[in-house]
Each structure stands twice: as C-alpha cells, then as structure tokens.
C-alpha cells in the first residue's frame, strides 16, 4: 500500500512548526531568566506558551478538517508558516550565538532596507544556516513522536476531528477511548482555566514581552510603519525645586544668563533675536536665526510640506535649559594658561579622527585592566613563559596611542623597535591634552558623530531619523563656514604677508573635508555629512572608480564596508597639499573602520594570538581578532601623524582623536556588541586634543563628547588663532551649547544641579544610559517595556561585572538601597525622571513626534 506524499509532508511540516516555535521560545525565556525571580518564572511558566499552543491547534485543524483542493491549501499555508517560523527561530539562535542578544525584527527590517546594511546581515549567515540545519534535522527525527502525541491528545478531546491517520488512533476499545477522552477534557479544561487565570493576574511587565512568539512578532514588525514628524510639546521639568528664582544667574558678557521657570519656561531675554554679528545670509545650520523668507520658502506653506531645511518652532535655548551648567566663567587650566603666555600655538588646521569601536582601555592597552586579566586567565598560571610572551605582545600593541595620550600602558618598556613607527617630535612635556572619563553620546556611530561634530544630543529613536529633521545646533563645519562669510562682508584689506604668521593664518578661509576608505552609503552617512556641513567627502564609492586618481586593481576589501585604511592616505595627502598651496585652513575629518565587525585585517598583515590557543577556539576568537585590528589601527594613526609631518603642517594642526563608541565582547558582559547593550565597555572612549606645542596635560572629566565642539572653539580663541571678529563670534557661540569646555575646570554640579550625562544605546529608541559627573552611579533606562532597568556603581564595580537588573523601578530602588545606601536610591529615582524628561526634550528640540 502506497502512502501519499501529503501524508508524509503534513507530519513533517507540523513537527517543523512545533520544534521551531519551541526553540525560539526556549531561547527567549533563557535570555530573560537572569532578571526574573525564579518563583515568578515557575508560577507563570504555562502562560508563556499560550500563543504557540493556539497556533499549533489552529494548524492541526487546518491540516485535518480540509479535503481535496482545500487540503492542498492547508498544506501550503502550514508550510509557509513552518518555514517562516524556521527562518525566524534560526535567525534568533544565530544572532544570540554571535552577540548574546535577541533579534528585534523592526530593527532588522530597517537594516535590511539599506543595501549596505544587508551586507552586515549577511556577515552573520553561517550561524543562522547552522541553526536552521539543526532545527530541520531535529524536526525530521521528532516527526513521528510529535505528530502522534499531539494527534492523540487532540483526538481524545473531541470527535469533531475525523482523521484517516492510523498513527493517531488510540489502539484501545471505544469504551476506554471515551473514558480517556473524558479525563483528557477534564484535565485540559483545568490546565486551561489555571493558565488563563495566571495570564489574567500576571504583571504586564515583563511577562507580555516574554510571551511574544514567532511568527506573530515577525508579522507585527513587518506591518509597523515609520513615524511621521510633527512638533513635540514641552514637558515640565521633573525636579522644579532646582529651578527656583534664587538660583537664576544674570547675563554677563557673552554669557546670556540662566533663568528657567517652573513648568512653563520664563525667558530672561530674546534668545531668538538675530545676533549683531550675523551676516545677512547665514550659512546652513543657523536656522534658529534664519527666516523662511530668506531661505526662499513661502511662509504660508504648511509645515508638513516644507523642506527639511525650514526652521521649525522648537530650538535649543541655553537660558531656559534646566540642565545647563557652564564653566566658561572659569579661567583656563593653569598649565595651558602658562604655556600660552610663553609661546605662540598656531592652530591653522583642525583634524578630527573618529575611531571606530575605540575602547578607552585599549587606547593605550592597559596592564592590569579587566581585559588584560581576561587574557592572562586564559593561560595556565604556572606557565610563566607563555604569560611573559603574551605580555610582550601586548606591550607592542598600542605604542602610538601611548605617545598620543602621554599615558603609559603599564607594561615594561619596549626592549626592541616596533617596525617603522612614528616618533613623537614634540618637546618633553609637550603634546596636548588627554581627557580621562569621557563617555560617548551614542553607541550608534552616526548618532555619535552628531554629538561630536555638532554638540547636540541625538534623537532617541531607532537609527538615523535625524537626517529627516533639522540639526538643532550649528555643527563645527557650519561655524567655520560662518567665519568664511564674515570675511566676505568685512571691509578690511587682507594682509600682504603670505607666510605662516598668526595674522596671515587668521585671515584665511576654511574648507571642511571628510575622508574614509569604506562606503558612505550605509545608514545615509553621505546625506548626514552634507547636512553637517562638509564641503567635500571622499568614500569608498569614489576611490573604487577605475578612473579614480589612485585606483589600482589589487585594492583589498578587508570587510563588507570597504578597503583598508591605507587606500585613503594619498587622497588625504592631496587634500592637505591643496590647502597648503591655496593658503586655506583645513578642517579634515577621517573615520577609521578596521576595528568594526568582522575585525578583518589586510591579508599580508601578521596577526597575533593573544589568548591561549585552546581558548581561542572557544569564546575568545572575536576579541582576539579585535585586538589585532586595534594594533593595525594604532600603526595607521602613526601613519596619519607622519603625513602631517611630511606635509609640513604638524606644528600648526590640532588633531582631535575620539572613539565613536566602545565595543563589548563576551569577556565583558553577557551580551557582546553595541546593539541594545548598555554595558560600560560600549561607552568609555578615548579623547585627545593633540598639538605638539600644547603642554602635555592629563585632564579628568566625567563628561560626554558633547564637549568636543565648545573645546575646539575655546582652543581656537585661547591660542589667538582667530581674528578679533571670529573670536567674538566663537565666544558667543560657545555659550549656546550644552557641553562644557574641557580646557577649563569641569563643573560636576552647581546649586544642587548635577552635570548629567546621557548616552543613546544602539539602535536608539529602546534604552538610554543615564549618569552624572557628580556621582559614580549609572542607570540603563528602558524606553519600552521590553527591557530591564540596570543600575551600577562604577566606583565599586568599574567593569559592571555585578550590576543590578530589575524589570520594575520600585524593586530596583529597594535593592539599590540595600546594597548602596539611601543616597544611591534617591539618585536612582531622580535619574529615572531626568532620563525620561531628556528623551521628550530631545524629541521637542528635533521637532519630532511619533504619529500613526
């Protein structure tokens, strides 16, 4: 007797659906088990599988209550659901294997819509395919058992489901079958009632999220629509006692005063008035002082139909910002003040190097750091020879970073030369300012770029919605263009001195150029760079053209984004030489890329093994690859410094080196990577203001990179590298930004107010890092119900190895009070309020609001 193909296919498809669904849910529950009390997990355990049970029952009915052509439709629908569930489950398992985190389908959809983002997704295809193969195999092996057991259960419940499957028929008498069916109904009814009762009484958070099931969660994400933009409303400040009139500060010189009201803002002056220094036609970025008429826009045009460049109603006002603390009333730090009296420090050019995934503990790599201990622990502690050898390798990892920061790695001095590396020509005691304690403003690269270049808080929504809005402050490139326009309106005759005197430098115009060896299309980076004011950008798309000036056929792609860093070097040399020849001041920015996943280096580059060999094959491979890219980029930074020497501009160039964000690995936290991971290793980054004629200074400031822009302006003013008019404008604009200057004593608090630090966590709209310069505490604030609160005390736990996780604020406050005291608990309550206010305030400033 021949068995039809459908009789073989239906059991397998049903088994595939069951196995994939249960695998997905098991992983989902496991990922949240650490933050849910075991008693609650056991009590509500049956409720987590309601969706899967209903889905399987519906599919069973679909397969067994249809016949003829309808049966084929049932099989087709079941097959579609089974393979969608297989895809989703395999993706979740593969993503967890790589990152330790869970897939968010709405975020995956956004990345998948980007052609360059699809390369990022495909880079993790191997573990997904492996997971799919395992699920297919398990489904095939378990098909008879799953189909028979489920079939007999359903068959015993009701006679409404006729079946011609002999395997599901109970091999017993009709009387006993009826008796078993009756007991099955009773037990099923009892279990169902108990499960429904538990489902009704269980808390929504976190159990609704934990009950989510594929393919439902996948379908919901695909149906979601991107939000539209409209003006957001002002929310009252949650700590009004700090805004009382007794704390208000009067205007003084360039300082415009500080006078926020209680609830509704009370303006101390008309901050929206066009400044006296403003030319008739302001450059892009100064929309706060622009008007639609001057931009050529009909003011009667409905706001929703206006171009993005049209200024909207909301803007940043330093007078009414409840959080603003300025240190511009303080004198510059003494070593810098003394050095500027003794010598000229010309800043003709500024170069900003944004370093991908640059952790502070690898710039330079630090002995006795948590990362160093992780490497040593991978070895047999009795094998002193191996430990000595790996320490020798680590000592050679970041010699350039040691020179740039003035920090020692803590290893014994190098006993041999390390290739042809850059040697710092600065005099002893000179070299610039190294800042300790800096945190990134976002662990998403281009949101971080907005903080660094523009001194703004990024928009707390997923991905780069900022490119559809208006940057609420001028970026540094916009300010340099403003200086250019001011020179066009001056009646002063240019100096006849064509040399490098300070007077000649001050009279030159600026040009802003961006250069990188990787794609500029990912996440619309090219659009963002134009929006931020770069006059010219060079990307992989430019240098990969056969007619590009330095194109050669053996250009090597080291990752899915583009080429090795060295491919951009001749283009950067040309940009510098052109600026020198044309007497132009250059703002040159470069973004490194090698330290980005998948941490590949050029084929000819010799990779080292830092972890013990047997550990390398277990869970240290990614970190080992990352450390090799760190060494590669360290050498590349030396090449950049040599380029400045070679082109003759090293002694007149301020080089700002800053990480876009850090990079967490398995050695740091249970989740690796930056995606939806608020671990401190993703936020601590290096920041250096390098100039061979600035004194070597080690500055400590628990701040974010929001301070970069005002610090650059402050340095240009203090070194007299701007003419009188530009200096006045710079001093005025420095008072418009939220960040403090890092060349003055940093104010951690003032009149009870704290200098709060906020960090957007990749992808942007789900979690927020909240900290303060006044205390060592840190809160990861969930912005949706799908995430936990996380509290840490960085004084006691600097590497966040024992953070406190809770789904609700109340229980978290209780645990924090028990472990860290009342002060920490009070801070936590305030931090939660301030964080939520800050999120609403960013949306207001970006004139953004979610609508259906």
Automatic annotation (TrEMBL):
Descriptive protein name: Sulfatase N-terminal domain-containing protein
Transmembrane parts of this sequence: 42-63, 75-98, 128-150, 183-201
Signal peptide: 1-23
Domain of life according to the entry: Eukaryota
Provenance organism: Penicilliopsis zonata CBS 506.65
PANTHER family: SULFATASE, SULFATASE N-TERMINAL DOMAIN-CONTAINING PROTEIN
UniProt entry keywords in alphabetical sequence: Membrane, Signal, Transmembrane, Transmembrane helix
Domain Sulfatase N-terminal: 529-716
InterPro entries per the UniProt record, alphabetical: Alkaline_phosphatase_core_sf, GAG_Ulvan_Degrading_Sulfatases, Sulfatase_N
């Amino acid at each position: 007797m021949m068995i039809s193909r459908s009789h073989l296919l239906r059991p397998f498809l049903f088994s595939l659906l069951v196995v994939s669904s249960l695998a997905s849910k098991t992983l989902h529950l496991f990922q949240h088990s650490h933050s849910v009390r075991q008693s609650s997990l056991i009590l509500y355990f049956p409720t987590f599988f309601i969706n899967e049970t209903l889905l399987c029952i519906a599919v069973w009915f679909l397969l067994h209550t249809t016949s003829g052509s309808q049966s084929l439709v049932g099989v087709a629908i079941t097959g579609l659901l089974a393979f969608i569930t297989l895809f989703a489950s395999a993706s979740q398992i593969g993503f967890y294997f790589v990152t330790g985190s869970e897939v968010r389908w709405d975020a995956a959809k956004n990345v998948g819509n980007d052609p360059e983002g699809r390369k990022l997704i495909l880079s993790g295809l191997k573990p997904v395919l492996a997971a799919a193969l395992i699920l297919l195999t398990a489904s095939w092996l378990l098909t008879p058992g799953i189909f028979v057991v489920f079939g007999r259960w359903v068959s015993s419940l009701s006679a409404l489901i006729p079946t011609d499957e002999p395997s599901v028929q109970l091999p017993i008498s009709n009387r006993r079958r009826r008796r078993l069916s009756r007991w099955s109904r009773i037990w099923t009814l009892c279990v169902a009632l108990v499960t429904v009762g538990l489902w009704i009484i269980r808390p929504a958070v976190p159990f609704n999220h934990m009950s989510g099931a594929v393919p439902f969660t996948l379908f919901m994400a695909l149906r979601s629509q991107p939000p539209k933009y409209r003006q957001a409303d002002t929310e009252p400040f949650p700590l009004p006692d700090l805004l009382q009139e007794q704390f208000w500060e009067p205007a003084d010189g360039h300082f415009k005063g500080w006078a926020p009201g209680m609830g509704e803002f009370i303006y101390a002056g008309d901050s929206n008035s066009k400044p006296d220094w403003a030319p008739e036609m302001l450059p892009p970025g100064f929309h706060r002082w622009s008007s639609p008429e001057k931009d050529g826009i009909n003011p009667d045009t409905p706001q929703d139909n206006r171009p993005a460049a049209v200024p909207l109603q909301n803007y940043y006002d330093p007078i009414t910002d409840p959080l603003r603390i300025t240190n511009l009333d303080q004198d510059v730090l003494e070593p810098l003040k003394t050095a500027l009296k003794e010598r000229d420090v010309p800043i003709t050019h500024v170069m900003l190097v944004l370093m991908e995934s640059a952790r502070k503990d690898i710039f330079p790599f630090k002995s006795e750091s948590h990362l160093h201990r992780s490497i040593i622990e991978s070895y047999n502690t009795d094998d002193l020879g191996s430990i000595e050898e790996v320490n020798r390798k680590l000592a050679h990892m970041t010699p350039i970073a040691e020179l740039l920061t003035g920090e020692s790695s803590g290893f014994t001095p190098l006993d041999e030369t390390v290739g042809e590396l850059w040697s710092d020509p600065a005099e002893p005691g000179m070299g610039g300012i190294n800042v300790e304690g800096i945190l990134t403003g976002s662990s998403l690269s281009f949101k971080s770029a907005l903080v660094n270049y523009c001194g703004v808080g990024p928009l707390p929504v997923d991905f780069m919605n900022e490119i559809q809005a208006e940057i609420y402050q001028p970026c540094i490139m916009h300010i340099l263009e403003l200086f250019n326009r001011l020179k066009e309106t001056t009646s002063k005759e240019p100096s006849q001195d064509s040399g490098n005197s300070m007077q000649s430098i001050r009279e030159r115009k600026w040009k802003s150029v961006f250069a990188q060896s990787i794609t500029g299309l990912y996440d619309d980076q090219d659009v963002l760079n134009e929006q931020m004011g770069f006059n010219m950008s060079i990307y992989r798309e430019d240098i990969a053209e056969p007619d590009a000036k330095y194109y050669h056929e053996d250009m090597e792609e080291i990752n899915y984004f583009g080429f090795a860093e060295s491919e951009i070097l001749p283009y950067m040399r040309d940009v510098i030489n052109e600026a020198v020849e044309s007497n132009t001041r250059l703002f040159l920015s470069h973004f490194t890329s090698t330290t980005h996943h998948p941490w590949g280096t050029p084929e000819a580059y010799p990779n080292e093994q830092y972890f013990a060999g047997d550990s390398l094959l277990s869970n240290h491979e990614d970190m080992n690859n990352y450390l090799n890219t760190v060494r590669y980029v360290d050498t590349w930074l030396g090449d950049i410094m040599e380029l400045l020497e070679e082109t003759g501009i090293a002694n007149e160039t301020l080089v700002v080196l800053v990480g876009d964000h850090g990079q967490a690995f398995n050695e740091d936290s249970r989740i690796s990577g930056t995606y939806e991971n608020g671990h401190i290793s993703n936020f601590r980054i290096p920041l250096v203001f390098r100039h061979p004629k600035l004194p070597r200074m080690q500055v400590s400031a628990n701040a974010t990179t929001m301070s970069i822009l005002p610090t650059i302006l402050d340095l240009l003013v203090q070194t007299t590298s701007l003419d009188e008019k530009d200096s006045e404008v710079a001093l005025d604009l420095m008072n418009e930004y939220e960040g403090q200057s890092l060349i003055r004593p940093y104010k951690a608090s003032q009149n009870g107010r704290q200098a709060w630090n906020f960090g957007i966590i990749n992808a942007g709209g789900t979690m927020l890092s909240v900290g303060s310069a006044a205390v060592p505490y840190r809160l990861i604030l969930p912005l949706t119900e799908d995430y936990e609160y996380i509290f840490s005390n960085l004084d006691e736990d600097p590497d966040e190895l024992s953070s406190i996780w809770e789904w609700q604020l109340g229980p978290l406050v209780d645990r924090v009070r028990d472990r860290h005291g009342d002060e920490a608990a009070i801070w936590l309550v305030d931090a939660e309020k301030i964080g939520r206010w800050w999120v609403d305030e960013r949306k207001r400033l970006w004139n953004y609001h979610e609508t259906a």
